[in-house]
């Protein structure tokens, strides 16, 4: 976020290449770093601290020496593993035998969802995304609980219709019909519709979370309509 100049060595002229405005500086991403004293021995900032210090001081000879020390130590460690028959198992990377390349295990290549994704951060080397809990990202427990309610609801409606169409109506069957609380229209209930119904027998946690999800869903729809109005 600083100025960048191009210096022409032939004629000594200097040209401004990049000069960020105050607006650009305000939009820069906030940097989150782990405190140096909390870093492990193989964190880049700690591992390369002497090389970095030499570079900052403009001491190229010292930087080269410190870099050689690090790389030689890594070579010796690899040599010892080969001699001892110890297999190296990376924690964060996997090897692709087809391309002979290393890939980060926890890479997240999906597009950023501004309606659901809040922030992305790294913890213990693992890339993680903080998300809002929209209805489209319900937990397995919630989904299973709701689907069970829908199944029981449909079964109740089917039993009710079967009693209604009995070949031998009686006072008992009429009472059964009148006491049946499930309306006949429930046979058209879809799984998606069931997600937004307030079933009485939902567990307390699911019921609370479902209400919260419905509120978020309504808020998101309102935001989407506002965005559409802005675009128009």
TrEMBL record:
UniProt xrefs under SUPFAM superfamilies: Oxysterol-binding protein-like
UniProt feature, compositional bias: Basic residues: 151-164
Protein's name in the database: OSBL5 protein
Gene Ontology molecular function: lipid binding
Domain of life: Eukaryota
Pfam families (UniProt xref): Oxysterol_BP
Disordered: annotated span: 144-191
Biased composition (Polar residues): 167-188
Gene3D superfamilies for this protein: 3.30.70.3490
Lineage: Eukaryota, Metazoa, Chordata, Craniata, Vertebrata
